[in-house]
## 1
Amino acid sequence: HKDLTNGQGKEVVIRRGSQINYMDEFEWSGPLKVTMKSVFGIDNFRLCQEGVCNASMDGRDVVCVMPTGGGKSLTYQLPAIMSRGCTVVISPLLSLITDQILHLRQAGVEAVMLTGATPKEESKAIFSRLFASTRAIGSADGRGDKEIKLCYVTPEKIAKSKTFTSMLEKLATVGKLARIVIDEAHCVSQLGHDFRPDYKKLSILRQLFPHVPILALSATCPPKVLQDLLLTLRLKAVVDGNTADKTGTVYFTAPLYRKNLHYIQAMTDYILEHHAYDSGIIYCLSKKDTEAVAQGIMDASGNKVKAGVYHSDVTDAQKERLHVKWRSGEVQVVCATIAFGLGIDKSNVRFVLHHSMSKSLDGFYQESGRAGRDGNDADCVLYYRGQDASRLSALICGEIEGQDKLHQMLQFAQNLIDCRKIQFANYFSSSSSLALSSWSDTTAAGTLSRCGHCDNCTRSPDSITTRDVTLESWQILRVIERVSRHGGRVTVGMLADLVRGAGGGAFAGGTGGKRKGKAKATASSKEKVDLDLNDIAGGKIIMNKADVEVLIIQLLLSHHLKEEFHSTAYSINVYVTSGPQALRLTRLSRQQIQNGEGSRVSCTFLNKVATKRKAPSKSTSKTKHKPPAAVESEDEEEINIDVG
Ligand code: ADP
Ligand code: MG
């Protein structure tokens, strides 16, 4: 045992006995977190980031498999900044490298790249800086410049440039080659889906630099590929746990199924940032979701947030135990279906998150109302994107007034302008006996005043854009018309892909067959029909997927589109098709639409840039609302709307 303080005065114990747990605290833990915050503005590690950083700092060879968007870059950038000398990063794509360099330089980190496209002059300058640093003692490179902390290269630099590898050998000799990072490491294996011959040649790295740690990163690495990767890179076998055998490769993986990753990650970040020590509830749509979300949140937070599940299949004894643990704070978050609610006698619930929206505004209001019963401030957040509507639609199919109620919920979720309190008030005064006046503080004119603290009240004007989307609506309706004519069926998500000309759009054809393919409609399971977007709609829609989904939902709500239900042996599927209002647009030509004829459609979108949440302001309301944050990744984007 070795006792140390973590740099923040907190005493830590590091076991150097039979087992090392890289999720523990180490002597570098404090500085690591301070640097993470000051350089990258990040407060908490995600998934297995902390373990990877610790093992790297400890000089181990590491393989880390984390889903795309999980945050692999931080796992080497942070140790690179904290370590003596230069970290070499091998990455296959110039565009990825350029992005990273830009990002790092903005954060004030010395990062350079050497690729086939680097001009001679620039590469010479980099070489001489690296050379100078082999002679320098401190952190400067001996000429007053800052030392290069990260050097990105494409794999052929290692495979083909003797000058470069011999420079690395010089660095290694004086202990200034901190580590070698191989991004997209599955590319070394022919068994993977993305084999690159130049990656195969990375096998020389271990021979050239036997004492320099290697960090291999990937988002997809099935067991066979992993074995092949270890073999090719000449890494030792993966050691079980983190044993004291310091020569074995440490393996980290963060399994989170992709569909849910963004919501789970966003919810975890949100809890850690705003309610790290508070109790809360997360409402989920299904029993299965409660399990996945609870596990996901524990994984994503590195077990900092303890979550339990509650649904109708949980036994009474288990429910009782959960209640006890939740009351005592041992369980921080209950992931629940709507079965959880009655009988909640906990008054200090500080947040209620909706992983899925409710079937109606009544439900949403009630569930959200379980926060802040002690009268103190609490937060309610709904995570929403347009395509979420499909699952709900399928669920309420057949319920009396189910569809109307869901549409009102959707209307609320899509409304980025009106005060949430006023939206609730209007809804309840028209649907129940709750009078408008019971919502207090009406203005002199007798109308309700805005609450001043919901997401829509605190939104900065440049976080949303309202614009005329009649042409895009017309394009969507033209495409759906054509799909229907060929007996095809599309969901909200598929339609959003299809009108954007994105690949992967699948159609359930007229005979029930499913086909995958680029903008292809299926007339029957035998016949394929090319959907020529230029011909049908005068081109594709240039908007991101989340925005197109929002527009599709709006067209549903305005009856330009409608839902169509089809049941299979296992489930009810919900598709979208032309609605009663569709003809108002489709009877016009593209030219007419462009000339401003016909009834116009406008829609409000959340701007893509992530909005930093403002600190909550003091309020009299028992729910708290914050500006929304938009999250975006390559093909799955979603908006997250904070409401109360
Ligand atoms: P990957 O390479 O695994 O696909 P990236 O390293 O590009 O993912 O990170 C994805 C995004 O997540 C980046 O915008 C990054 O800034 C952000 N990110 C990484 N780690 C964290 C964290 N611990 N907390 C919040 N955001 C993070
Ligand atoms: Mg990456």
## 2
Amino acid sequence: MNSLECPKASLARRLNNFSGSVARDILSRTQNKEIISFAGGLPDASLWEDLVLPTVPPAAYQYGPSEGEMPLRQIMADRASAFGLDAEASRTLITSGSQQGLDLAAKLVIEPGTPVLVEAPTYLAALQVFQLFEADIQSLPLDTEGIDAAVLDRYLEQTKAPLAYLNPSFQNPSGCCYSLERRREIAEVLDRHATILLEDDPYRDLSYESDAPPPIASFLKNTPWIYLSSVSKTLIPGLRLGSLICSEELFPSLLKLKQAADLHSNRPAQFIATELLSDAQKNAERIEKLRSHYQQKRDLMESTLRADFKSLADWKKPSGGMFFWLTLKDRVDLSETLEECLKQNVAFMPGSPFFAHKNDHPCCIRLNFSLVSREKLENGTRVISRVIKSQSGY
Ligand code: PMP
């Protein structure tokens, strides 16, 4: 045994089938400045140039409440109420990114073998969390309006799954935005089966055509729900702050899980976020600027893809969020594509990690359009399309 190796028997069984994040591996390989990376879900840092960060008062260096700072809880609850959720600051928890919300929700519900319903494709780091808790992950395909409510109904009838994880507004990775009708139908099905809804909504503000319809959780009548938001996509991800709002019966248990996880989220970061978000008018202007900036990038990406990828892939122009999701017409080995692209200083995300079941899904790639500068966007997509063309014998 190598001195750095741990005897397997001393580690928790949950690590046996637990894989590291492909996305974070790629991210660590794309740190050099030269690289054109479509791989992550990173905001454009140029948008922060005129952001003036407040000075943190020493009082914020002290330990604080596990729920989070009340002014920030109020801001997050007010924002959610404004788009229709039954939200109250008293049921709002400030989390260390919405990623922690996924972790707390998983701890709340999942035992080894618990069936959990997700979309196909779905957010890869949610899959990672559910795998960690040894869920029996089942996925339902997305069409252009979301998952099919009748299929969901049949699935829940069979499995009695206690948890459904959905990312219905400008989904990562597909960009799908569930229609109003679909949201209502799904809420009705979840209510009927008393399935807890875990709704992940970090991209809601990044809409480029019309606002996303109200959250699915806002249509629920009796089943418990957890609604996650984040400041990562619209403010600064390095603050590592999100919010978890839930129905009343879940809050005490989630609060205990938060206490055990990290006592509370970073207080200086909470202070900064509160200061930056408390002026509603200024915040609305900032989001508007962000939307128009990303909308232009999305449009540029669409025209670039039309020129380079038309014969290679199908996609739907996303009406919000940060990603294009391309389904390749011919199957190629995307790990080979990625290695070749990385040699040419371009990165993207292969689609496979976004599927719970790795074997029977289409050959897809995810391209982020928020990070790369307009000047580099065209060159980058051209490299990827050339590599795919050479692999598929064009
Ligand atoms: N959910 C989804 C769907 C995401 O895309 C992300 C970030 N990529 C997260 C949750 C986590 O975001 P954060 O922890 O930065 O709030």
